[in-house]
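User: These chains co-purify. Model them together.
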Amino acid sequence: MSDGQAGSSPDPHDYLPVRPTAFAVLLALMEAPRAGFEVMERANAADPGVRILGPGSLYRILRELRRQELVRRVEAPDDAPAGADDRVQHYGLTELGRAVTRAEAERLGRALAAAGLASEGRGDR
Amino acid sequence: MIEPRRVSGERLYRFLVACAYPARFRRRGGPELMAVFRQGRRAADARGPGAVATFWLRTLADLACTAPREWADSAAALGRGVMLLGRDPVRELGLAAWRLGRAPGHAVLAVLTLAVGLASMVTVYSVVRGVLLQPLAFEEPGRIVRLREADGEGRLYWPSYPNFVDWRERSRALGAITALEYPRVRPVRLPGGAARVSVAGAGRDFLRTLGVRPARGRGFTGDENRPGGPPVAMVDHGFWRDRLGAAPLEGLTLGIDGESFDVVAVLPRGFRVFDAVEVWTPLERRKDLGQRGSHGYHVLGRLAGGHSLDDLRREMNAIASALKEIHGADTQAAAVLTTRLRDDLVEGVERPLALLLVAAALVFGVACLNLATTVLARGMARSRELAVRLALGARRADLVRHLLAETGVMALPGAVVGSLLAAAALAYLRRVAVGLLPRAQEVSLDASALLTGLVLSLLAALVAGTVPALVLARRDVAGRLRGRDGTDDTRRQRRLWNGFLAAQVALTVVLVVGSGLLLRSLWTALSVDLGYRPEGVVAVDVTLPEYLYPDGPSMTGCWGRALEELRSRPDVAAAGLVNVLPTETQALIGMAWPAGDQDNRVWAGWRMVDPGFFATLEIPVNAGDWGLRLDGRGGPVPALVSEGLADRLWPKDDPRGESLGNSFGWREGRLRVAGEVGEVREWWQDPGWLGAMYVDYRAAPEATRTMHLVVRGGAGLDVGSLAATVRGALEEVDPEVPVTVGSLQERIGEGLADRRLALAVLLGFALAALLLAAVAVYGAVSYTVARRTREVGIRRALGARPGQVRRRVALGGLLPVTAGLAVGLLAALGLGPLLSAYLFEVAPEDPAAFLAAPLLLLLAATLAAWLPARRAARVDPLEALRLDG
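Assistant: Joint model of the two components:
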C-alpha cells in the first residue's frame, strides 16, 4: 500500500502554509530518513530563523507531523553505525509529506516572485 | 538489545524529564527523548566545553518551554474527552441515571445532601449580598454619612439640635445635611378612627440628603420646616396602603396632638432609614428642639461634589473644636464621628453574617465531601468492572466521563432542589428577620445568587467527582482484575476515602460544637429567674392624647377609671399600672443615693406604679402602708426600693425610713423609703446589677402620659380572650384612646428573637451536618465490610468469634472518625471567639459543649458503624470464601 494514495488522496495544498519549524524538519528529511538528533541538527543548521531547542521540542514537532501523516517512523537504515543506541528512532517522509514539502517550497517561491524579490535577491549578491 | 553507553548528565536529565512531563508523554516519548539527549550530549562533548554549556542551556530551555505546553495539552485532551460525553451525551446521562437507579439509596442521600448544602450557601450568600454588598436604595448611597458627637473620652452621643444647626451653617464639605428624630408611638386620628402610630420629625433637606423622591406628592418645603410652619406630613408607603386605604392625598389629614396634618407625600415602597416610621412631620416647625447638651437626633449628611470623607472629617472636627471653644462645658462634642451610612447600618451584623457564612460553608463542604465519597464508593465497588473496561480498550477519559456523568446526574436534581429550598428559606427569613437584621426587606433570591449557586454546586460536583474518578481510572488493570485488596491502588483509594470521611467529621464537629454552645446559652437565658411571673399576663401600651387629656389630673383620673373598669371584669384577676414594663429595665434610668451622701451614687430605674402592679406580676413586696396620701402634698412621698438597690445604698441597715436622693427631679429628702420589693431583671442581666425605685403614679401626675397596664386573667383563661376582655374594658373607658394589647411573654421573647434565629439556623446546619457525617460513616463501614467479606470469612473459619469480628470491623470504620474529631475540636476552639458575642453566661470553650458534641457524633458514628459490622459478623465463612473462588 502506498500511503493511502488510492481513492480520496488528500490534497497537499490543504496543509499549506507549513510552519517554518515544521518545514525545516520536512526539508531535513527530504534526502533520506534520519535519526531524531540528525533532523534537529540539520533543521537548526539549514535555517537560522529556526531553533529547535532540544529533545522535547523535537518530539512535539515530529509527533505533530506524524499525526498529519507527513512523517512516519522507519527502520534504522543498514548503514547505521554498529552498536548504536537501538532506541534511536528514524524518521522518513511519507508520499504526502514529500508532496506537501514540495508544495510549500513552490508557495514560498511564488511568494518571493510576486514580491519581485526572487531576482533582486540574486542581483544584490 | 544493545545497552547504550551512558553519557554524563543522563541521570540528571532523566530525573528532570520525570519531574517535568506528564506520565503519558513520558511513557510514549521518554526513551526517544533520552536517545536524542545522549546523541546531543556526545556531539557537544566532541566540540568542547563551551558547546557542553550551550547544550545544557538549550536543553533546560527546551524543558521549560515544552513541559507546560504538554501539561496543557494533556489536560485539554482529557477535558475534551470528558466534555464530549461520548458521541451521545443524552444516552450517557441516561445510562448514568439508570445505573444510579439500580442502587438509589446512596444517590438519593447525596442529592439531598447537595441540596441542603447548596440551599444554605445560597441563602446565606443572598442575605450577605442584600445586607452588606448591595448599595442602599438611595441615590449615590456612598456619599451619605452619619454624624455623631464624640466627647474627649471617645463616648458617642446623638447630636443636639443647636450643634446640628451650627454644623449646617459652617460645613462646606457637605452638600446637604438633615436631622431626624427617633420615632415615638403616638395616638393619631386617622380617617377610620384613632390608632397608635410611630411618628418622627424630619428636618429640612431630609429627602434631598438621602436622594429620594416621594412615590406621590412632594417633600417638605423650607417654609413648612421652620418654627411655626403649617402642619404637614409624609407617610410610609405600607401605612398609606394599609391604614389609609391608598386614598388620594387631596384632603387627606391626620390628627396628631390636636392638630390636623395635611398629608403631602407618600414615600417610596420600602423606604427606611433607621427605625420603622409610619408618619414623618416637619421637625423644625417645633419651637423647642432642646439645648446644646441634650442629645436627641440622628444627623445625616451628603458629601458635596469634589469632597472626600477625609475632607469632611477634618472640617467637622475643626468646626467641633471651634464650637467647643465658644460653648465650653455646655456641649459634649469635642469631636465629630463621621461614618458612611451603610457602614453604620450594618454595624453589628457583619460578625453574625460572617458566622452564618462560615456555618453554611461548612455544611456545603460536608455536602461536597459526601458527594465525593458516594462517587468514590460506587466506583470502588465497580473497580473490577472499570478494570475490565480498561482492559478491553476503554480510554481513561471514557472512565472519567462515565463517573462524572453519574456525578452530574446527582448534581442536577440536587441543584434544583437546593434552589427551591433556598427560595423558601429566604421567604421565611424576610418574614421573621425584619427588625433583627437591617435591610432584611431588601434580601431576595435573585438571578445572580441562584446562578452563583448553580455554578457552585456543579463546580463542587465536578471537583467531587473528578478526584475519585482520576484515582479510579488509574491503569492498574492486572491488580484490579485479580481483585486483590492489598494492591497499592486500593490502598490509595482507601486512604482517599478515609481522608474524605475524616474531613467530613471534622467539619461536622465544628458545627455541632457551635450549636451546642448556642443551645446552652439559650437554655441558660430561658431559665433565668426574672423576678416576676409573666405567664398569662397581658400588657397594654397607652399614650393619652393631649387634646383629650391636657393636664395631670385628667390623666390620673383616666388611669384610675381604666383600672377600676378592668378590675370590675370577672375575667380579670388583677390589674396594675406602670410607666416602664419589666422587659425594659434599661429605660428611664438615673442616679440614686442615700440623702446627703452624693458620693454613693448608683444607677437606678425610675418607676411609677399603682400598687396593683406588684400583685399582678407577683413581685414580692415587703412594706407596710405605702399608699399615697393625696392630702399630704409637700410632705414626704413614700417610695419602694428593689432589694438590689437597697443592698447597694444601705448595705448594713434596714432602708425603711431612710431618705432617698435622686436625679429624677425630687427634692432631696422628699422621697422616703417605705419598704423593699423583689428585684426585676431581664434575662441577660446579672442579678441585681440594676435596681429600681417605685413611687405611686399619682405623685407625679404630669409624667403619666404614656403608661402600660398589666392585667392577669382568672385561672385557666388564655391570653387571647383576656386581651379581648381588656380591649373591651378600655373601649368603655374612652373609645378615642388607641391601645396596643399583647402577651407579656411574647414581649420577653422578642428580646431573645435574634439569638433564637441564629440558633435555629445553626442548629439546622448542625443537624444536617450530623446526619451527613453519620451517613458517611455508615457508607464507609458498609463499604469496608463488603470489601473485607473474604477476610472476615477466613477469620471466622479460623475460629474468630462474631463479637471479635464485629469489634474489629466497627473499630476500623471509626478510626478516621476519631482523627476527624480531634481536628474538628481544635478548629472549633479556634472559631470560638466568633461566637462569643452570642453567648450568655457560657464560655466559648465551654467543656460541656466540647464534650457533648464529639460524644454525640461518636454515638452517631458508632451506630452507623455497628449496623454493617453486625452484618459482617453474620458472614458465613463458606459463602464468603466461595465468593472469590
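The first helix of chain A runs from residue 20 to 28.
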